[in-house]
Amino acid sequence: MKSLALPPMEYEQVLNECLSGIGSVDLRNLYQSFITEISVAGNQYMSAANCGDYTVLPQTIASRGTDPVVIGSICKSHFIKLYENYLRNSKKPARAIYDRILVSSNGKCPYCGGIGHTSTLDHYLPKANYPQFSVLPINLLPCCKDCNTGKGNLVATAVEDQSLHPYFEQNHFFNEIWVSANVIHGDPIGFEYFVSPPAHWSLIDKRRVVAHFNDFDLSRRFSLEAGVGVGEPKRLRRGYFKNFSPEVFQQILCDGAENSDFLLNGWNRTMYRALSNDDWFLNQEF
Asked: Are 7 and 104 in contact (CB under 8 A)?
């Protein structure tokens, strides 16, 4: 929904900063012994991202109560703790990296297009399944709690099921319209949001935006936002624009749909597009 610039720090830099917060010499040496192999895994992630196919990356499948080895002698729990205890921990040096990534979206969650305020980091590939990427910066996305908890540990098993990755997606996901809405007539006015990608997109890209919309429950969440947001154009229609013709009011709504402060596929810009095309709404006096 919103693209982000790649984090400026390298994987090995983040690893070393995390290791600097480890008090146990033996534990620190364990990570240090395999830092090259961990960095190689990070390069594999970058290659997969550049190809747009994360399904090629190896998952860690573990039954309950087990702690499988992931890289060298480093177990899944070691990687999880590296994130929980040394990157996210506010008392450790690497927390500065965590915070730097967290603020990179200017407070707007990239998954839902800014409905929620960024307050946590999400692992695009869940650390439960891909522990080797627990502190990989390009796998860490600033997001809101609703998107983080709603997505959970979803793992795509096919390319077309992958949600959008704000660091790596091609420009057409962000500069072409693929979200639409219908106005539900009545009092209160409602909205039905749905995915409508351009016909020239590939089938995989069309399915991916559907997957993204479903993974983050955006149809419902956008509808809730618009149910409140429609109050502003209604208020203006009752007041300042009361005596304007439906055609003039339509142009005003079209101008609202071009507001550069709104994301192209965000709930608010899509709401204005829907209202400007709805004859019932244009002819209401409210």
From this structure: yes
- At residue 281, the 3 state secondary structure works out as helix
Q: CB count, 10 Å around CB of 151?
A: 19
Q: What is the rounded distance in angstroms from the CA atom of residue 32 to the CA atom of residue 6?
A: 25
Distance from C-alpha of 51 to C-alpha of 262, rounded to nearest angstrom: 29
**Could you state, in order of their start, the residue ranges of all structural domains in the chain?**
11-158, 172-282
Alpha helices of 203-260 — where are they, by DSSP H? 203-215, 218-229, 231-238, 246-257
Long-range pairs for 15-19 at CB < 8 Å and ≥24 separation?
15/39, 15/135, 17/93, 17/94, 17/96, 17/97, 18/82, 18/86, 18/87, 18/92, 18/94, 18/135, 19/86
Residue range 117-149, pLDDT digits in tens: 999 999 999 999 999 999 999 999 999 999 998
Give the pLDDT confidence of 13-51 residue by residue, as tens digits. 999 999 999 999 999 999 999 999 999 999 999 999 999
